[in-house]
Amino acid sequence: MLDFLMSTTPPGPIQRFLRTYALRYLPVYLVGGAALFATNYINVLIPQFVKDTIDAVGQNQPSAEWVHYVVFIGLLAITVIVTRTLSRIMFFNPGRTIEFRLKNDYFRHLLAMAPAFFQRFRIGELISRGTNDMMSVRAIIGFATLQLINVVVALTLCIYQMIRLDVQLTLLCAIPLLASVWILRHGVGRLMTLFKEAQGQLSALSDTIMDAYTGATVIQTFHATDTFLGLFDKRNDDYIETYRKMTLIRALILPIVAVAGSICLVLLVFIGGHKVLSGAFSLGDIAAYAAYINIAVTSLNSSGWVVNSIQRGVVSLRRVYEILDAESDPVPSPPNPIPKPAPVSIEVRNLTFQYPETNDTARHSAALSDISFRIEAAQTLGIFGPTGSGKTTLVHLLTKLLTPPRNTVWINGKDILDWSREELRSLISVAPQDAYLFSRSIRENIGFWDLPKDISAEKLNESAQLACVEGEIRSLPEGLDTTVGERGITLSGGQRQRVALARAFYRDFGVLVLDDVLSAVDHHTERLLIDHIRRRSAQFTTIIVSNRISALQHADKILVLVDGKLSATGTHAQLLATSDVYTRTWEYQQQEQEEQPAELLPSWTTKEAAHG
What we know:
Elements: H1 2-6, H2 13-22, H3 26-58, H4 63-111, H5 115-120, H6 123-165, H7 167-214, H8 216-221, H9 225-253, H10 256-278, H11 283-324, E1 346-353, E2 368-375, E3 380-384, H12 391-398, E4 409-411, E5 414-415, H13 421-427, E6 428-431, H14 442-446, H15 457-466, H16 470-475, H17 493-506, E7 511-515, H18 523-535, E8 541-545, E9 557-562, E10 565-570, H19 572-578, H20 580-595, H21 603-611
Parallel strand pairs: 3-8, 3-9, 6-7, 7-8
Antiparallel strand pairs: 1-2, 1-4, 4-5, 9-10
Helix pairs in contact: 3-4, 3-6, 3-11, 4-6, 6-7, 6-11, 7-9, 7-10, 7-11, 10-11, 15-17, 19-20
């Protein structure tokens, strides 16, 4: 066992699990094992005292001769209660603690994963592995280990005592018992196959439920409730059918050991009865042997559940380690000290990137092809292009949410692959295109960096002002303490976007990335936001992604992306003279803005303009 744990060969999931989580509790398990051995040893002693008691009564001995046996049996029963309880505490408590640590590591690992990981694994499946599979893993180190030791010790001691009483009878009883174990083994194997199917079906069911919860508004809008209920019923029926098969196997196969036990009792009565008549057996021997048959049957019956639990746990452990083994960063980064956020220069050299899921490796299928540019510290970079041109992909590469090829992206003259993810996340503040808000108050959504500590009221107000959302927050009934609901559903699209932008302003940063966050606000609010950012632009490097050229026209450098390629680069004035795509878009957007009636602008924008 120790050789298995200490082996230097690449460890499998079980070996790693034991090394990482279980080995530290070995002294506790040893105490539990000792208590378990004592429990079973006493259990096989009790039939001996029952035998002596019955024989004493049958021989009409004075009560003083056999009452002390009864008292001693009572004391042994009390001792069994104590030792059995101690053994369960010693096995079950570490199992709960190990489950707690494993779940924390699982959750921590998920938070470190890149976006590509969540394209491979659906949320419902991740939840299923983090709950149902975790419970099966806990069973390995708790219930299954306890029962495994219990079965081995109980059978060993019980068979030894049965052989002492009668070898021939024990060999005859072994035939139905071993036959039942063989049948049980195959039944458990079939149960294991069905359990794997059930786990996959449960993951699919969880995905369906998650989709229905998160997309409830869309389902109701398109009157698709019946469709989703039908899909839910289909997957639920599949899951129920699989469990029905498992229940049928348990009902038909697992009682087979009890049947074998009954056959053993018949053999005992028939053979033992003749031995009693011949004087080779006493009535006490019959009673003791019957007790041993009961212990053996109970242990063998438990063995089926033990094997089932271990196999289920192994399958679940592999599913959990499939997630834990997924690399959060394909290129490991050195643990450098976290620098203080400050403006940085960014350079991209001949960057070509293709998503791993793409089968075609031809150059034309790449998401980005041969991109090169440079911006100095405290400058502003604008990224413009039509939908699908690669703008968000470029942002994800610059922030290391996606991993670029080596020697293609440099920050302050250092390859981005040599920056740890923690360094970059402390340096860069991102307002993403998808303005996700938590189901908490606006205060907690903006200042969640400081949770569970106190959120700075000064930084909170400053962030809301910079994001041009202070006036609307003030107009809400509960102000900053207003709960925004699931994904911020109680707010408008523009409000959600600006609350998310206020969150980006709240923290200290050296690089500010705005990934198309201005698409949900009107032009007047856009001008205020850009003006606020320009006033503070000397404090950080800015990257603005937008289809609105008005948000980019003051940038020090603008990239024009078309089909993943760099179509043009320069300032606003230079691009108007050199880029047809840029010029046509600018003229169209200017005409569209001039045609917008002034009364369509919300009244609060005038108030915010007055506040400056």
